[in-house]
Amino acid sequence: MADTQTSTIMNRQVITDKELHYVKDFLSWELLAMKKCKDAANQCTDSDLKNLILQTGEKHKQHYQSILAQLH
C-alpha cells in the first residue's frame, strides 16, 4: 500500500505508515504537554494559576485519550 493511499479492510480503516508517524507525534506532544503542566503546577505558588495549569494538563490528557480511542 502506498503512503498516500488508505484502504478499507472488513469495514476497518487502515492508516499508512506516514499517518501512523503523525499519530505517534501527536501522542508524544500531548504526553509532553501533560508532563510539563504537572511540573509547572508543582512549582507554582499561586493557587489560581496552579489550578489553571492543572486544568490545562487535564485537557491534554483528554486529547491523548481521545487519540488513543480513535485507534481502536
Secondary structure elements and their pairing?
Elements lengths: L6 E3 L2 E3 L2 H27 L3 H24 L2
Antiparallel strand pairs: 1-2
Helix pairs in contact: 1-2
Keywords summarizing the entry:
two-stranded antiparallel ribbon, mainly alpha, single chain, 72 residues, elongated, 2 strands
Explained architecture:
The protein is mainly α. It has one domain. It has two helices and two strands; from the N terminus they run E-E-H-H. It has a two-stranded antiparallel ribbon with strand order 1-2. A hairpin with a 2-residue loop joins strand 1 and strand 2. Helix 1 runs antiparallel to helix 2. The longest helix has 27 residues. It is elongated. The two termini are 21 Å apart. It comes from Paenibacillus psychroresistens. This is Spore coat protein.
- Tell me roughly what share of residues is in helical segments: over 70%
The number of domains is: 1
Low-confidence stretches: none
pLDDT averaged residue by residue: 88
Largest sheet: 2 strands, antiparallel
Give the total of beta strands: 2
Q: Briefly note the structural class of the backbone.
A: mainly alpha
Strand content: 5-15%
As laid out across the biggest beta sheet, the strand order is 1-2
